[in-house]
Amino acid sequence: RIEPSRQRFALQLAQGDNFAPAWTVDSAGDSALVAVNAGQFTRMLPWGWLVQNGHELSLPGVGPLSMAVAFDSSGAVRFVPADSIPTVRAAGGIANAFQSYPTLLTGNGAVPAPLLPDGRGVDLGHRDSRVAIGALRDGRVLIAMTRFNALGDAAAAAPFGLTVPEMAALMGALGCRSAVSLDGGISGQLVVREPGGGSRTWAGWRRVPLGLLVLPRAMAAPGARSR
């Protein structure tokens, strides 16, 4: 759980040779309080709308269940439904933003119709390791990862776990009013720095192009690209 008034968010784009995705939680550096893989991605690039340090790097993607997470210049965090992204873009003032899918909870805490038992267009039975980000009702931001741990740490990264509707239910139970999935499965990865200086890391098996960092508010933003 992150308090935007006390910390700030940044995006770290990491590509290696031939633009291959190169980001892992190890890319975040020791100064990041939290780091997690951000959004979804095509074969090599982040999918959908991407703004980094005030520069728009890619246009919004098309998808009714997509949602953008936008961070404005004051540090406020907004969860923007797909049909509202053009309005937010036109208003300006966005420092960082990325787009992901599927939406798990709309702004009033409701589960989108396609995720309900009589919905259509989403595989409601597939189980996987999940990662999601959401807005809590008290204004904080929640990042959640689920890992299958019945067989101990050796199997924790196995791509098995909750369904999408179950992840929506979990985010609601944790107090979120808005929430969207991030890439899960073998891409899901998270590091959390502990107050005493140590850290807890849940590694992924796949490098991705984009990471979301939570930094101390006084720190400068990371560079546009990291190798």
Explain what you see.
With 227 residues, the chain is mainly beta. It has two helices and 15 strands. The strands form three sheets. Strands 13-12-2-14-1-15 form a six-stranded mixed sheet, with no helix packed on it. It has a five-stranded antiparallel sheet with strand order 4-3-7-5-6, covered by helices on one side. Strand 3 (50-52) and strand 4 (55-58) form a beta hairpin. It is globular. It starts with 6 loop residues before the first strand and ends with a strand.
How would you classify the helix and strand content by structural class?
mainly beta
Shape: globular
Q: Percent of residues in helical segments?
A: under 10%
Q: What's the count of strands?
A: 15
Beta-strand fraction estimate = 25-35%
Oligomer description? single chain
Largest sheet: 6 strands, mixed
What's the rounded overall pLDDT mean?
89
Order of helices and strands: EEEEEEHEEEEHEEEEE
What is the CA-atom radius of gyration, in angstroms?
16 Å
